[in-house]
Fold this sequence. Notes:
Blueprint: H1 17-39, E1 46-48, H2 51-63, E2 68-75, E3 90-98, E4 108-109, E5 111-114, E6 117-120, E7 122-123, E8 127-129, E9 143-145, E10 151-153
Antiparallel strand pairs: 1-8, 2-3, 3-4, 3-7, 5-6, 9-10
Amino acid sequence: MNTIEKKSVKAGKYVNQQEVNTYIDAYKKDRWMQNSDRMGKADSLSVWFTVEELEGFLATVKENGGNGVRFHFGTFSENHVENPLVSGLQNIVMIGTRSKDGSYETAKQLYAQNGETSEIVAYGNGIPCPPLCGPGGKGRSILIQNGEKGLSII
């Protein structure tokens, strides 16, 4: 096991309900509506993972000398074979990182030895919400002025 000196810089913080609502409402207005219109179907608003999956991924990152995780936005392929319902929707992939000084500025992607090759330490393919999270998957609704299309509730 690789070890690193613990000098981590706090990158985030706990946020309250008002901050959560502000982030989500701004995203719906500035990105989600346009993505959904372009695709002709509702894009995902969130991605869900179990606590066990997250703990397992973090353990793998630590076991391989990592001290951070980057969350990358991505999309399922247009012809997603495993579940066509999610084709083209947004998703998240988590990539383990290692930084000698514990900062995000110097963080590099983390690789683990797998036999004679190195593999990136990454985890993805969470559950996109909507469409797969059930009735609560969309979160709270907001009213948005949608240009020539008038008002939209999202």
